[in-house]
Design a protein that fits this description.
The protein is an alpha/beta fold and 388 residues long. The chain contains 12 helices and 24 strands. The chain has helices spanning 55-63, 81-84, 87-93, 103-113, 181-196, 200-210, 230-241, 259-273, 288-295, 314-326, 345-355, 372-385, and strands at 4-5, 10-12, 15-17, 22-23, 26-27, 32-34, 37-40, 44-47, 73-75, 98-101, 119-121, 127-129, 134-139, 149-153, 158-162, 217-220, 246-253, 278-282, 298-304, 307-308, 311-312, 332-339, 359-360, 364-367. α5 packs across α9 (288-295), α8 (259-273) crosses α12 (372-385) and α10 (314-326) packs parallel to α11. The longest helix has 16 residues, at 181-196.
């Protein structure tokens, strides 16, 4: 459990959660890391901690650099317990350390831990001298909690970005130069789609603030540290925060007796005829958080369900609830499905798409099993309605 040097006096001392597979309903097939950073300046400083069950791992890493009791400053950039879970035990080891957090961070830590800790509260523009270096604080409110905060060290041009630019990714490698870039970017996209997406306006505000800084390295609270690909990930964040989409289509559905699946494939044929890339997702086999990763930049979102007990299927309802909470904007939606006698599901799907403010294509509702001619007709109707 060795620390990893970012330079000659800053070390990654976090924890690796190899076994994590579910994070609030978001599937983390590659695990995660909880990144803590130790700064060995005149004031020895620790930025963030780890989940409670990885506390000993963090302390072992810190101990290879310095006695943890010598830590002068502890910075809590985020209350959520994957970041702050180690604080209670750490403050027992470091009773004289100053605990720095945001205004909402102080309120949140008190609510979580019921401790009378001595806080020093920071807001955007505040800074603290550590000796040869300085930390400047930037509130990151609602990226993705009200208490989120980051800090920037101008002398090294390192941004400790908290949840921004993170990925759920467990690996022994720490830098973007050491791990396949396509996987890092995919996990960063998935993280944004499933955690940050509802807060695009707040993210744009943060990106505007960060644009004035000279950033050579981004050290997030989860996943890989950005070293050689800082510009690329910032560009992606600007596009994601602006809700920019590409001309591609997703067809997301569940089916009972294959009729809704046949409609899904007819819709696929329509997009292919217009040379629009298309992907199909059966909700029985693909997790909603993986689908949301593609929703992040898809223009067309087609959602289908048969009717079961006067309702859409539970899998479709779950996806729509999840998607609505994440609030992707500027999409073109299409509701479709089959039914035996009631047929309520398609209208229910369409109602949710309307609530999200999407532009809608005419819905498709088929009783019983569509024959080949009807499927061809469905495809032709969609071809006439879509642009591309």
């Amino acid at each position: 459990m060795k620390p990893v040097a970012l330079n000659d006096f800053i070390y990654w001392v976090g924890g690796i959660d190899w076994d994590l597979r579910n994070f609030h309903g978001y599937m983390t097939q590659r695990g995660s890391t909880y990144n803590a950073y130790l700064i060995m300046d005149e004031k020895i400083t620790l930025i963030d901690t780890v989940k409670y069950y990885l506390f000993d791992e963090m302390i072992e890493r810190i101990s290879k650099v310095v006695d943890p009791a010598q830590i002068d400053i502890i910075i809590s950039n985020h209350v959520e317990m994957d970041h702050s879970g180690g604080l209670p035990r750490l403050l027992e080891l470091c009773p004289n350390a100053t605990l720095i957090t945001s205004p909402n961070g102080a309120k949140g830590l008190e609510a979580h831990y019921k401790k009378n800790w001595n806080y020093k509260v920071m807001k955007t523009g505040d800074s603290i001298p550590l000796g040869k270096t300085t930390l400047q604080f930037i509130l990151e409110q609602m990226v993705h909690w009200p208490d989120n905060m980051g800090c920037y060290m101008p002398e090294t041009k390192i941004l400790f970005s908290n949840d921004a630019f993170g990925q759920h990714l467990a690996t022994s490698e720490r830098f973007d130069t050491e791990y396949p870039l396509d996987i890092i970017m995919y996990e960063a996209k998935k993280y944004y789609a499933n955690i940050v997406l509802p807060y695009d306006k707040q993210t744009q505000k943060l990106l505007d603030a960060l644009s004035t800084l000279d950033i050579a390295m981004i050290a997030p609270s989860h996943g890989i540290i950005w070293k050689d690909h800082v510009k690329e990930i910032v560009t992606h964040y600007n596009n994601w925060a602006a809700n920019k989409t590409t001309n591609k289509a997703l067809i997301i559905y569940d089916t009972m007796w294959n009729s809704t699946r046949l409609i899904a494939h007819a819709i696929k044929n329509a997009f292919e005829a217009k040379n629009i890339p298309v992907q199909l997702y059966d909700l029985k086999t693909i997790h909603i958080s993986d689908i949301m990763t593609e929703v992040l930049d898809a223009k067309y979102i087609c959602i289908g369900s048969p009717t079961l007990n006067n309702n859409m299927l539970p899998t479709v309802a779950a996806f729509l609830t999840y998607c609505k909470g994440l609030a992707p904007k500027n999409r073109v939606g299409l509701a479709f499905g089959s039914y035996g006698w009631g047929g309520q599901s398609v209208a229910q799907v369409e109602a949710v798409l309307q609530e999200m403010g999407w532009q809608l294509l005419p819905s498709i509702k088929v009783q019983y099993v569509p024959d080949e001619q009807l499927l061809v007709t469905i495809a032709q109707q969609i071809i006439e309605k879509i642009n591309g």
